[in-house]
């Protein structure tokens, strides 16, 4: 396979493009998430519906929006969809590298 140039975007399985800068920002941003942001991030990886995340963490919609803004800013993404695209690319398929589990109150208790 031909070697890609450093800044050449990588093609994902869903035909989106992810640059090296996006990957670097995402990986560095993970280290900066607060415990609550990390819990929300993990819930999103488990594809937990928004309302269920709010119920489990006992937070209101505006509070979740506030956390989302912080999470997206730290990870360099603009949406939950993009967060999942980059995560899946970085881990090379979420189903083979991470057992899908249901996000529940046990996950929230770690906060």
Q: Mind explaining what this structure looks like?
A:
This protein has 111 residues and is mainly α. The chain is built from 7 helices and 2 strands; from the N terminus they run E-E-H-H-H-H-H-H-H. Helix 1 (20-30) crosses helix 4 (61-75) and helix 2 (35-45) packs across helix 4. The longest helix is centred in the middle third of the chain and has 15 residues, at 61-75. It is globular and about 35 Å long. The relative contact order is 0.18.
List its salient traits.
111 residues; mainly alpha; 2 strands; 59% helix; 4% strand; globular
Helix content: 55-70%
Work out the radius of gyration.
Answer: 15 Å
Provide the low-confidence segments as ranges: 1-5, 93-98
Total number of helical segments? 7
Strand line-up in the sheet with most strands: 1-2
Mean pLDDT: 81
Largest sheet, in brief, is: 2 strands, antiparallel
Extended strand count: 2
Structure, briefly:
The protein has 111 residues and is mostly helical.
List strands and helices in order, with pairings.
Layout: E1 10-11, E2 17-18, H1 20-30, H2 35-45, H3 50-57, H4 61-75, H5 80-91, H6 94-97, H7 105-108
Antiparallel strand pairs: 1-2
Helix pairs in contact: 1-4, 2-4
């Amino acid at each position: 396979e031909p070697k890609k140039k450093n800044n050449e975007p990588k093609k994902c399985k869903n035909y989106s493009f992810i640059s090296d800068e996006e990957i670097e920002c995402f990986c560095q941003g993970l280290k900066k998430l607060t415990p609550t942001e990390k819990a929300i991030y993990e819930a999103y990886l488990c594809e937990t519906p928004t309302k269920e995340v709010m119920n489990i963490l006992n937070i209101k919609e505006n509070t979740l929006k506030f956390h989302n803004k912080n999470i997206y800013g730290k990870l360099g993404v603009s949406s939950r969809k993009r967060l999942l695209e980059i995560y899946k690319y970085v881990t090379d398929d979420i189903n083979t590298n991470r057992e899908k589990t249901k996000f529940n109150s046990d996950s929230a208790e770690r906060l």
